[in-house]
Amino acid sequence: MIKRAIYPGTFDPVTLGHLDIVKRGLELFPELIVGIAENPKKKPLFTVEERREMFIESLKEVGLNGKVEVKTFNSLLVEFAKRERAVAILRGIRIVSDMDHEFTMASLNRKLYPEIETVFLMPSDDYAYLSSSAVREIAFYGGDVSQFVTPFVEKKLKEKFGR
Ligand code: ADP
User: Fold this and answer.
1) Can you tell me the mean pLDDT for 22-48?
2) CA-wise closest residue to 46 among 147, 124, 135
3) pLDDT tens-digit map of 53-108
């Protein structure tokens, strides 16, 4: 069986850190599916369709076009993983403080669906302090986000904040 992994997240919006994890994931798994969680409770800035479009366009911009499928979901993560017949969930760990939350989630997911493994990957040092929320904050105040996101996402942020 081909080993397929899913990389789930809110991706509000996708950053170069997320794309770095995708690149690393592709070294380990021949099939990778990005799962964009609707996550209405987080009140995302972008709709799930906007987030999907930004991910697809960003993959093209960094030369990962055609290697990854981008889907959306609005269910428990393990249900999405089952539907996609994934053997692993990829998550990125930036700094030690990410671990608390990620370990809790991974343990719960293992209880709900013991067949799935959670695989943690570290991004390049350049992205260790990068988050979607920081990008939103910088863009909101008109700062330069070009070293954190792709040109397509930068454009979408400018549109969103009316610049
Ligand atoms: P979630 O709401 O599920 O945490 P995010 O979009 O914030 O969704 O993050 C998705 C995944 O990507 C998480 O595993 C997160 O730790 C990871 N991630 C976020 N930013 C980075 C980054 N700069 N480098 C590596 N991984 C990251």
Assistant:
1) 96
2) 135
3) 999 999 999 999 888 999 999 999 999 999 999 999 999 999 888 899 999 999 99
Residue ID of nearest Cα to ligand 1 atom 22: 17
Report pLDDT for 65: 87
Query: Which residues make beta-bridge pairs with 120?
Result: 91
156 is catalytic: no
Say which CATH architecture domain 4-129 belongs to: 3-Layer(aba) Sandwich (3.40)
Catalytic residue from among 51, 94, 136, 156: 94
Query: What pTM was computed for the model?
Result: 0.96
Q: Which of the 8 DSSP states describes residue 72?
A: E
Distance 142 CA to ligand 1 centre (A): 23
Sketch the domain layout of the chain as residue ranges.
4-129
Report CA 117 to chain centroid distance, whole Å.
Answer: 17
Atom 4 of ligand 1, nearest CA residue: 9
The pLDDT of residue 162: 86
Q: Is 94 a catalytic residue?
A: yes
Q: Cβ(130) to ligand 1 under 6 A?
A: yes
Q: Is 51 in the pocket of ligand 1 (CB under 6 A)?
A: no
48/112 Cα distance (integer angstroms): 25
